[in-house]
Design goal:
Layout (H helix, E strand, L loop, with lengths): L11 E5 L3 H12 L4 E5 L2 H11 L3 E5 L7 H11 L4 E6 L4 H9 L4 E4 L4 H17 L2 E5 L2 E4 L4 E3 L5 E3 L2 H13 L3 E2 H9 L7 H12 L8 E3 L3 E3 L1
Parallel strand pairs: 1-2, 1-3, 3-4, 4-5
Antiparallel strand pairs: 6-7, 7-8, 8-9, 10-12, 11-12
Helix pairs in contact: 2-3, 6-7, 6-8
């Protein structure tokens, strides 16, 4: 592995490809680079895996059964603006290229997918992630995205649970009131139901680790920062 790609071990990736030979070869490469690799052979399975695991990077072929790569990317963008997406396609059609631009993809790779093309896309992914590591919440308060912790104005550290981390990321990304349904989908995942009591407890515990008044509940609608 190239030295500049060594930090990929800190991240997770979802790879969607319906062609068995290509899927096997690229999966083997990705497993040498990332901490976890989730693999799907069609767009519908890829979307379920995305909701369940919320990977840092999604690499998807365009032409697949179920949701195609562009449709999958659109569904992901409804949930998250920060998930990095790479689309692989045999198409050089202008309409596909324009769709890719609208989805804020970090790379649109025209087949054949070579190791050189893949590595270039992964280098771009890392540069994007490095820029997003630290977030200022309030004077003296910091959210470290990679370490999943809050640092307060007295340098005390508060480690976030998986659900706390997901909820905070969702609220920061949307910059608006986020509905209960959106929270259930992003934080609890595709296969798990969310109760109102569970959400209230999650919000209560997260508030204890954040500046006072940062998270607001909008009655019968959802939460916002």
């Amino acid at each position: 592995m190239k030295d500049e790609l060594a930090n990929l071990k800190n991240y997770t990736v979802l790879y969607a490809e319906d062609e068995p030979g290509t899927r096997k070869n690229i999966t083997e490469l990705l497993k040498m680079m990332f901490s976890k690799v989730f693999v799907a052979e069609n767009g519908d399975d890829a979307y379920e895996l995305y909701l369940k695991h919320m990977p840092d990077l999604v690499i998807t072929d365009v032409k697949m059964p179920g949701l195609d790569g562009i449709e999958l990317s659109k569904e992901i963008r409804k949930i998250s603006s920060s998930t990095q997406i790479v689309v692989i396609s045999a198409y050089t059609d202008v309409d596909y290229m324009l769709s890719a631009v609208e989805l804020s993809l970090i790379r649109y790779i025209v087949k054949p997918l070579t190791e050189t093309k893949l590595n270039r896309a992964l280098e771009i992914f890392l540069k994007h992630k490095e820029k997003r590591k630290i977030h200022k919440l309030k004077d003296g308060w910091i959210y470290d995205e990679d370490k999943h912790l809050i640092l307060d104005n007295e340098q005390n550290e508060y480690k976030l649970t998986k659900k706390e981390d997901r909820l905070l990321k969702l609220l920061m990304e949307k910059d608006r009131t986020v509905s209960y349904k959106e929270i259930e989908s992003f934080v609890w995942g595709y296969d798990n139901a969310m109760s109102q009591n569970a959400l209230r407890l999650l919000a209560k515990n997260l508030r204890k680790k954040l500046p006072e008044g940062l998270i607001q509940n909008i009655h019968a609608v959802g939460y916002r920062l």
